[in-house]
Design goal:
Keywords: Hydrolase, Magnesium, Metal-binding
Distance between the termini: 38 Å
Structural class: alpha+beta
Shape: globular
Number of domains: 2
Family: Belongs to the inositol monophosphatase superfamily.
Strand content: 25-35%
CATH architecture of the largest domain: 2-Layer Sandwich
InterPro entries: Inositol_monophosphatase-like, Inositol_monophosphatase_CS
EC number: 3.1.3.25
Cofactor: Mg(2+)
Amino acid sequence: MPETDLSLLIDAAREAGRIAVAYAGREMQSWDKPKGAGPVTEADLAVNAMLEQHLPSARPGYGWLSEETEDNQDRLTRDRVFIIDPIDGTRSFAEGSRTWAHSLAVADRGQVIAGVIYLPMRDMLFAAARGQGATLNGQPIRVTAAATEAEAEVLAAKPNLRPDHWQDGVAPIFRRAYRPSLAYRMALVAQGRFDGMLTLRPSWEWDIAAGDLILREAGGTCTDRTGRPLRFNNPNPRLNGVVGAGSELHEILIGRLDQPMQGHRA
């Protein structure tokens, strides 16, 4: 059941936080991943090792997809799969920021049924199970109802406002903010701290899976950049961007985007 999966994810996220916090603020080994995929630290690997030992042993029939584990296509044969980012925002974690997160989810036949985003340095645990609503530290959360782009404050990296992403080359006039962790951006929209978020480049499933459910269970709409619902555990675990907001603002943003006919835009 999603409820028991959620309890499992919450316990695992808190243990991940204990491990990661022990590394925070001290020198640690780090490496650059191949093909410009970003840094990884010994803390990422330690958290991943704990999760990979603990979660599959608790759910032997589930598949496994994690940023820090070499992908195994066996997951495609499983109805349910863990989708894990041991530390989302590794670069900011290594730099001493407090806005990195653990992102843990379970997807059932492509749909997320339980998700947790945990920021241990801020004592913020966002959680949701399908059909049960979304919470922050056990209290219900809800998206805002901003109905126009002029009213909205949207979390987005600056390159997302390039003219070539938008119809007629005109970017929206919303107020822009940014946080380095994509999972945290989605959680902040679910919390109602910001009105929407978007990222228009291909994005990894492990950055998004937990936030997709939390945002939708908080009353929001979350899709790819074309407006299609997100599906997970794909052979290539990348999605065509993410747009998340309350329903009215989401419709406005999707309507303003210039949809490329071929491929993805960075």
